[in-house]
TrEMBL record:
GO terms, molecular function: L-rhamnose isomerase activity
Recorded name of the encoding gene: rhaI
Signal peptide: none
Protein name, as recorded: L-rhamnose isomerase
EC number: 5.3.1.14
Length: 388
């Protein structure tokens, strides 16, 4: 099995958006381990993200998180990104760190708190207008800890109303993507726990509202590729937040915990028309690098996605369809497994070299001297939002 020119042409179009927060210090609730050279402001986060794109040609956009990436002048940030060869991507809102949001945000029982959260999203949309971003991503920490704590139905109805107000402001060329998560920080119930709830909410909003699927936001054992298939079938898969999970929302490097799961997901993406710039499905990472270095961590991540996409593109669709049609279970399964077990790394290295990229981007970055430079120059890096 080889990566023919058609597959290479498809791979050339791959774009994976990086999260600005992956470059800052992060950790768990037990400890944030600071690293030398981490960015001190959003400008430096973008400079670091640009290094990932430089050695891989895979990461042309950087997602921002407001208020973690708040700046006075977004046009300046946009120009800075463009000068470095990248663009500003998805704007992520934050309604989970203010005291006011103790009992929720868009689903809160108090209209004043809901309005505060809605206003924050209006601000995010204004920022999108300046940054040229297409997507507003909403992830809510809303939920309850104890049965009876609040009325789940009332909360869902209020959520619908709040989202409608936000959606009204979404521009012609913009989209709202609603992310779901089955638990945490609320432990009894979450107001957007699953794809079905997110789907019901975005369908009610309209054609520019979609579901965001974060791979780490499912219970262990969930068949995520089935959800991918279903959302693509329904035309409502807007974006991915890729990461790896061994247990829950671990936010580890995509493809690290379960490469076969990543393959299965990408097979359904390709099968369902979710791959490529015109598919309407944005690939993003949502990860933290708590103990490993951040820029190499992001390089490894985008390469993992690229390698697994290449394998998904290798699946012999015609042969698979014929085996499926014939009820030939074992042949159908082995066609899929043949693609999964194909080591595409040498072919990708060769192809990279032919395009003037380092054959091994990890090595290319290590040799660039950038890490030493930032470690020497930057003192007092900022905390990622979680700890700030
Ligand atoms: C919380 C979360 C979510 C968001 C991100 C900013 O679970 O990881 O996935 O996208 O924070
Ligand atoms: Mn996410
Ligand atoms: Mn998460």
């Amino acid at each position: 099995m080889t990566l023919n020119s058609q597959i290479l042409g498809q791979l050339e179009q791959q774009a994976i958006e990086l999260p600005s927060w992956a470059f800052a210090n992060s950790g768990t609730r037990f400890r944030v381990f600071g690293q030398p050279g981490v960015p001190r402001d959003p400008f430096e986060k973008i400079a670091d993200a640009a290094q990932v794109h430089k050695v891989t040609a895979l990461a042309p956009k950087v997602a921002l998180h407001i208020p973690w990436d708040k700046v006075d002048d977004y046009a300046k940030l946009r120009n800075h990104a463009e000068d470095l060869g990248v663009a500003l991507g998805t704007i992520n809102s934050n309604t989970f760190q203010d005291e006011a949001y103790k009992f929720g945000s868009l689903a809160h029982s108090d209209a004043a708190v809901r309005q505060k959260a809605i206003d924050h999203h209006f601000e995010c949309i204004e920022i999108m207008n300046e940054t040229g971003s297409q997507d507003l991503k909403i992830w809510l920490a809303d939920g309850t800890n104890y049965p009876g704590q609040d009325d789940m139905r009332g909360r869902q109805d209020r959520l619908t109303e709040s989202l409608a107000k936000i959606y009204e402001r979404i521009g012609e060329n913009q989209r709202l993507v609603l992310e779901y998560k089955f638990f945490e920080p609320a432990f009894y119930h979450t107001d957007v726990p699953d794809w079905g709830t997110s789907y019901a909410q975005v369908v009610a909003l309209g054609e520019r509202a979609f579901v965001c699927l974060d791979t780490g936001h499912h219970a262990p054992g969930t068949n995520i590729e089935f959800i991918v298939m279903q959302l693509l079938r329904l035309g409502k898969l807007g974006s991915f937040d890729f990461n790896s999970a061994f247990y829950a929302d671990d936010d580890l490097i995509v493809g690290a915990a379960d490469p076969f799961q990543l393959f299965r997901i990408l097979v359904e993406v390709v099968r369902g028309g979710g791959y490529g710039p015109d598919s309407g499905v944005a690939f993003m990472l949502d990860q933290c690098h708590n103990v490993e270095k951040k820029i190499p961590g992001q390089i490894r991540s985008v390469l993992n996605v690229q390698e697994m996409t290449a394998r998904a593109l290798l699946v012999d669709r015609d042969a698979l369809g014929a085996a499926q049609q014939a009820g030939d279970v074992l042949t159908a399964n082995s066609i899929l497994m043949d693609a999964f077990y194909t080591d595409v790394r040498p072919a990708l290295a060769e192809w990279r070299e032919s395009r003037g990229l380092p054959a091994d981007p990890m090595e290319g970055y290590a040799e660039s001297g950038y890490q030493q430079k930032i470690e020497a120059e930057r003192v007092g890096g900022e905390q990622a939002g979680w700890g700030a």
